Amino acid sequence: MTSVRELIGSRADGRRVVIKAWVRTKRETKNATFLEINDGSCFSNLQCVFDGDAGAGIATAMEKATTGASVAVGGTLVESPAAGQPVELKADSLEVIGVAPVDSYPLQKKAHSLEFLRGIAHLRPRTNTFGAIARMRNQMAFAVHSFFQERGFNYVHTPIITASDCEGAGEMFQATTLDLDALAKNGGPVDYSKDFFGKKSYLSVSGQLNVETYCMALGKVYTFGPTFRAENSNTTRHLAEFWMIEPEIAFAELPDNMALAEEFVKYLLSWALDRCREDIEFFDKRVQPGLIAMLESVRSSRFAHMTYTDAVKELVAHEEIFEFKPYWGCDLQTEHERYLSETIVKGPVIVTDYPKEIKAFYMRLNDDGKTVRAMDVLVPIIGEIIGGSEREYRYDVLLARIRELGLDEKAYWWYLDLRRFGTAPHAGFGLGFERLMRYVTGIENIRDVIPFPRAVKQAEF
Ligand code: 4AD
Ligand code: MG
Asked: Which of 152, 159, 161, 144 is nearest to 199 (CA)?
C-alpha cells in the first residue's frame, strides 16, 4: 500500500494513486478544499486538493472528513505550488472510512498541552509530537541493536521475574499469585513456599546479574528489555516501568567500559541526527531550540572524566547554589549532576570511583577500601543517563561484601559461582532508554517518551 512517505519522496509524475490515512486538517476556500492527511509513515502530511466543483458525491463525503477521520483519497500526484512540500495530490475521489465527530473527538486542530495529552494516551500518537516520538523511539531501538550487532555482541534475553534484587535497593514489585484478600482476613505470617514460585519473587530491576552469566561464556553480550522499580518518586526522570540496555564485556576493566559507553552514546546521537532528520528538526524547532547543534557538538566531543572525589570538591566549592548540600559520601542529586555537566564540563562527563556505601554490592572494590569502580555518565539537562561499573570478580571480596551488607548470600549462590569457576575481570553498564529518548528529543517529562507510562498512581491504559 502506498504511504505518504513514499509519495512525498517520489516524483510528481502525474500517476494516479489511492492513499489511506487520517485527516489532520481541512481548509475550505471558495474554489477548492484542502485536506491535509497523515498516515504516520513520516512527519509530513500529504496535501490533497479538491476542486470546488468536484461534485455532489465528494461534497457529501467532505462534510464527514473532519480532523481525525480515516479516509481513502484518490487522485494524481502533481508538483505542489505551495512552499515546503514538493508534491500534492490533485484529488478526484474521497471515501470516509471512519468518522471522528467534531463535538466528541478530543484532538482538534489547536495545539494541546502535553499534560492534557497524557490523559488521552490512547489517542496521543495521532499528534505531531507523539508521532515523532514514536518514530524516533523505533529508530533508537534499532540503533541499539545495530551498534552491538556490528561489534559482535550477542543479545541475551534475561528474565523479567526474578528472586534476586540486583541493585540491592529493595525497590522491587512483588510478583505473587497468593490471595492477598484472604491473607489479610486471616492474618498471621505469609507462607511463601505456597506462592507460585515457592519463594518470594519480584519483577526485575535489572537484567545485569543474569547477563553476567552469559558474559562469562560468550564474552560480549547485552540485554535490552523492560525493568521495574517501585521507587516512590514522582519526578520527570523516573518511571516504574522503563527499558534498559545493559552490555557486559569480559576481560575488561573500567576504562574499557567508559570507552564503550562513550562510543555507544555518540553512535546513538549520530543515528538520531542522520536517520530521524525530519522528526528531530521538529523537536529542534518546537521543543528544545538548539537541540541539533547541541547533539552535533556532543557527537564530535570527548567526554570528560572526573573522579567522584574531584566532583564533590567542585560541588562543595559552590555549595551555596544547591538545595541539597554536597559532601563526600553523599549520593549525587540531579542538581549536582546537572551542575557538573552543564556548568563545569559543558558537556557529558563520566564520574568514577564512588564511595562503596552509595553503590551496589557487585562493584569492584578499589585498593583504598573506600571506593568502588563505578561510573555514571552525566549529560546536560538529564543528569545520569548511564550507570555502570567494573564488577567484583574476586570471590572472597564479593562474598565479604554481600555479608557486610547483610544480603542473603544463599540467594546469590549462582552469581558467586561465576567467581568460583573461570572468573575474569568484566564490566558493564545500563543505559536508561527513556532517559536517552529525553536527550534526543528535548522532551522534558519522561512520561511523554514512552507510549504508556507507568508511575506512582498511574497505570491507566
Ligand atoms: O544506575 P542503575 O540503577 O544501574 C543498573 O541498574 C545496573 N544494573 C546497570 C548495569 O551496570 N548493567 O540504572 C541504569 C540506568 C540509569 O542510569 C538511568 O538511565 C536508568 O537506568 N534508570 C531509570 N530510568 C527511568 N526510570 C527509572 N526509575 C530509572 N532508574 C534508572
Ligand atoms: Mg544509577
From this structure: 161
C-alpha dist (Å) from residue 146 to 230, 267, 271: 31, 10, 10
Ligand 1 atom 24 nearest Cα: 432
Distance 141 CA to ligand 1 centre (A): 17
Question: Which pLDDT score is estimated for 173?
Answer: 96
Q: Is the dihedral of CA 264, 266, 268, 270 positive or negative?
A: negative
Secondary structure (DSSP) of 290-324: THHHHHHHHHTSPPEEEEHHHHHHHHHHTGGG-SS
Separation of CA 435 and ligand 1 centre (Å):
9
Q: Which domains does the chain have, with CATH numbers?
A: 4-98 (2.40.50.140), 124-448 (3.30.930.10)
Q: Residue 246 Cα, ligand 1 centroid: separation in angstroms?
A: 9
Is 207 near ligand 1, meaning CB less than 6 Å away? no
pLDDT for 166: 77
Ligand 1 centroid to residue 387 C-alpha, Å: 6
| Site of grid cell 490512547 | 122
What nine digits make up the cell of 353? 570511583
Tell the residue number behind the cell numbers 562474598, with chain if given. 399
Which residue's CA is minimally distant from atom 6 of ligand 1?
Answer: 206
Q: What pLDDT score does 167 carry?
A: 81
Question: What amino acid occupies position 174?
Answer: Q
| pLDDT for res 124 | 98
Q: Are 438 and 446 in contact (CB under 8 A)?
A: yes
- Ligand 1 pocket, 26 CB below 6 A? no
Q: What does DSSP say about strands 46-51 and 70-79: parallel, antiparallel, or unpaired?
A: unpaired
Decide: 21 and 46 in contact? Cβ < 8 Å: yes
How far is 150 from 148, CA to CA, in rounded Å?
5
Cα–Cα nearest to 260, from 120, 33, 426, 37: 426
Task: Determine how many CB atoms are found less than 10 A away from the CB of residue 162.
Answer: 22
Query: Is any atom of ligand 1 closer than 6 Å to the C-beta of 432?
Result: yes
pLDDT of residue 209: 97
Which residues in the chain show pLDDT less than 70?
Answer: none
- Beta strand 32-38 with 304-307 is unpaired
